[in-house]
Design a protein that fits this description.
The chain is an alpha/beta fold and 339 residues long. The chain contains 13 helices and twelve strands. α10 (209-216) runs parallel beside α11 (243-260). The protein is elongated. One of its GO terms (biological process) is carbohydrate biosynthetic process.
């Protein structure tokens, strides 16, 4: 994933609410936004959670009481759904990604020839699943919410043990939404320095500021949830962007990535005219007669910058005027001579 262009993943997740028509609308929104990929989530509730597994606190707030199993069962995508969405994304020229949460779902994604595997923060320590996915020999994007460096290292080692080193890592805070004081964006830099791998950010904050800031800090991948409507029923809608916000985020990221440049400090071509106008030249402070020995009191420094630059003033001091020099006329090596 290490390219000059930021890879933007529009995270639909389970915001399709189990409805294929909503999923298609989400694809259309992702395409219009200019995102590089749209990502869903692939799971079988029976393989993912026990029947008694409690909901996360944020899920209870958005969907009420009950078990994770009942919630997730309604949000499954079938093999036929996956095939349809892959064909639809291909027609719309956007990459389809999905996060598999179990072995069976990995095989479903293999059937539709998913190009990249995204692994959720919750499976960072699921070494058997990591190894299984790694053996597919495709690029892996690994989210690191809730993890410390040691756990991330274990996950990377597990993937590499299967002869797969095509790994990118995303900083993430696994709370929905994430408060700004819990983002710890500098940890993304820590991970880059520690593991020497492409890094990015999976954003669960409200708004787009942190994703944009992550790009400015060197993120090569951005993942952000989006929805048709934040008021829809479901666990993730309220922590997601609406279509307009998604478009604005993508545009902002594209502007930031252009503004980062190549890192070479130089006069840009667009600045050349300004440099001529804004910089200054050595000129005569007053009328100067021929044969006058020049001192600093004879010199002024004025725009435009089409003459000798002020930094060379000591190369002029002590020289003799070889001709009459009028006030504000350039003083240079052509109208002065060595004594």
């Amino acid at each position: 994933m290490n390219t000059n262009k930021v890879f933007i993943i529009a995270e639909a997740g389970v915001n399709h609410n189990g409805d294929l028509e909503i999923a298609k609308q989400l694809v259309d929104i992702a395409v219009k936004s200019g995102a590089d990929a749209i990502k869903f989530q692939s799971f079988k509730a029976e393989n993912l959670v026990t029947h008694e597994a409690p909901k996360a606190e944020y899920q209870t707030k958005t969907t009420g009481k009950g078990s994770q199993f009942d919630l997730l069962k309604k949000l499954e995508l079938s093999l036929d759904n996956h095939i349809y969405l892959k064909e639809y994304c291909d027609r719309k020229s956007i990459m389809l990604l999905s996060t598999p949460f179990d072995f069976e779902s990995v095989e479903i994604l293999e059937k539709i020839d998913i190009p990249i595997y995204k692994i959720s923060s919750g499976d960072l320590t699921n070494i058997p699943l990591l190894k299984f996915i790694a053996r597919k020999n495709k690029p892996i994007i690994l989210s690191t919410g809730m993890a410390n460096l040691g756990e991330i290292e274990d996950a990377i080692d597990a993937i590499k043990s299967e002869k797969n080193d095509k790994i990118s890592i995303l900083h993430c805070t696994s709370n929905y939404p994430t408060e700004y004081n819990n983002v710890n964006l500098k940890a993304m830099i820590t991970m880059k320095e520690a593991f020497k791998l492409p890094i990015g950010y999976s954003d669960h904050t409200v708004g787009t500021e942190v994703s944009i800031a992550a790009v400015a800090l060197g993120a090569e991948i951005i993942e952000k949830h989006f929805t048709l409507d934040k008021e829809m029923e479901g666990p993730d809608h309220r922590a997601s962007l609406n279509p307009e916000e998604l478009r604005n985020m993508v545009l902002s990221i594209r502007n930031i990535e252009m503004s980062l440049g190549d890192g070479i400090k130089k006069c840009e071509k667009s600045e050349e005219n300004t440099r001529l106008v804004a910089r200054k030249s050595i000129v005569a402070l007053r009328d100067i007669n021929e044969s006058t020995i020049l001192t600093e009191r004879d010199l002024a420094y004025k725009r435009p910058g089409d003459g000798l630059p002020p930094k060379l003033y000591m190369n002029i001091v002590g020289r003799k005027a070889s001709k009459y020099i009028s006030k504000d006329e350039h003083i240079d090596f052509e109208n002065t001579e060595q004594v």
